[in-house]
Amino acid sequence: MPGKIAFQGELGAYGHQACVEARPEYEPLPCPTFEHAIEAVRKGDAELGMIAVENSTYGRVADVHHLLPESGLHIVDEAFVRVHINLLGVRGARLEDIRAAMSHTVLLGQCRGFLREHDIEPVTGADTAGSAAHVARTGDRSLGALASDLAARINDLAILARHIEDHDRNTTRFVIMAREPDFSRRGPAGMITAFIFRVRNIPAALFKAMGGFATNGVNMTKLESYMVDGQFQATQFYAEVEGHPDDRSVQLALEELDYFTDRLALMGVFPADRRRYERGRSTARD
Prior knowledge:
The protein has helices spanning 14-22, 34-43, 64-70, 105-109, 112-117, 128-138, 149-155, 205-215, 248-259, and strands at 4-8, 27-31, 48-55, 59-60, 74-82, 86-89, 100-103, 121-124, 143-147, 158-161, 171-178, 191-199, 220-228, 231-242, 261-271. By secondary structure, the chain is of the alpha/beta class. The protein has 3 domains: 4-83 and 170-178, D-Maltodextrin-Binding Protein, domain 2, CATH 3.40.190; 86-161, Periplasmic binding protein-like II (D-Maltodextrin-Binding Protein, domain 2), CATH 3.40.190; 191-277, ACT domain (Alpha-Beta Plaits). The strands form 3 sheets. Strands 1, 2, 3, 4, 5 and 11 form a 6-stranded mixed beta sheet that branches. A 5-stranded mixed beta sheet has the order 8-7-9-6-10.
């Protein structure tokens, strides 16, 4: 086995599922927070980190983009995980026995229709896998958990209802991070270049900075802004474009961007996952 891959959550979480699907040769290392997962990679306790960045139903994962630029790590891959949500209960329980269901608030929000239809009260838990473990410990037939098939197997729970999410394309995108970048690969579905930047304090700086991508024919698939250090006047951007920095078009666009920024840092260069371009996936292009 080549080493460990860190993820946020307990065994059975969707981050664990992402590790199993995308890097089955690595040993999953559960971490209580994204900060702990990143630190595990930085310190060498794990070779890779599986970090959730956005969900097609819920949107971007809060605070993650604040962590990435200061992590000292590099994005070396991406993974899309189809999030199938199940209602789990203790052995012997039936769907009609369930009066309340526990899970992370994000998953509760993705199953509103099912919970309303069956008159099940949502109960906020720390995370999905932890909620499944809690249900297993209590042995309460009236309490369910919203979690993955993997969480059901790990905690020996029964699946009382499968795939109860409100949206049938519910998908979470993860980035895989490592201590060293890898610019050598070329993916069959193309390459993605990720970077962060801050525009200079001049009129129309963002408009001018983006112009280089249009004039050089570079497709920008993601552009997100967030405040830095709680200051409204200090805005940082996270962006992803199709292509490799060695491509002449990307090179020219980044050179033009650099002219209008006071900070520009490459976050990673990685092969595009084919699922990024599946029809109807809202995480593919923002």
